[in-house]
Amino acid sequence: MNKLNKMINKKKFISCSMFVCILLAALLALCIQPAAAKDYIPPGHEYTENYYDAYGEPALFASVLGDTEFSRGETARLNVVLSNRGVLYGVKSVRDAGTSEIRHQISLKELEYESRRTTARGVKASLVSATDFIEVDPATSSQVVEKIFPGELPDGPLTFTLTISDNAPAGIYLLEMNVVYEYQSDVRMTTGEVSQLGLSTDHATYYTTANTTMSIPVVVESEPDFEVSDVSGALTAGKSGMINVTYTNTGELPATDAVARIIVMKPLTTENSLRYLGTLRPGESRTVSYTISAGSSAVEKMYALIARSGISMRMERSPSQTT
What topology is assigned to 36-220 in CATH? Predict the structure, then answer.
């Protein structure tokens, strides 16, 4: 009889042990269930427990990939790499897990979640030019990166399209890049009551919005530049005439072996459209002459001759055409 009672008690003990193991496994499975960031509104603190407070946040920096020197009149791409140098400075325990193995596992899971504090999420970078000499293409002025992990570079740079004005003085220009992002400011583990809210997550993440402004230097190269500073002469229909064009080097560097070219269209013609200017230092001017023939059918009006900055000549009526 005693032997039978012992066997019954042993079976009961085994059954109870198996039940406890199954319950423990279920609770641990609930504790390690992942939750996607920001896919729900986090529950209030009354549905959570906090075991640790972490310290640290993302620190974003910008660097330019490739050349930052551009020429006047150029349309170019500016490649900017965002890096995250955020550091987790430390973690402080604010709740004792006690002797409970389950609570100990929960606290360790929160510690793992707290380590993600330095990741920048939903990063939006907007590049703005404060000068009229450099235009940022509106189609590329705002760029978005989903996540930037500390110590890791994004898959590719942010690419902005710039247009440099033909009249931009040489020098350094600072473009402003405003960066807005979010990072997790607190993580708390959820209690069993969170299921009443229709959620199935083991932790709640609370985010803070941050922003920073970075300066991106862009250099407009020094180079020779020309303007037509004076035009003299007149043309008569049915005859050839001489016009004088003065070119001035308005750039920052000397122009060596410079050649001027003029383009004319019907009813105007020229046999030699090229003139040698030689070397012109910054601010120096040189005048050259072109022989232009006007057709007899040319009417009296202003004609545009194509050269640097453009030339306008007025056509006069020939004396033989005057009644």
Answer: Immunoglobulin-like (2.60.40)
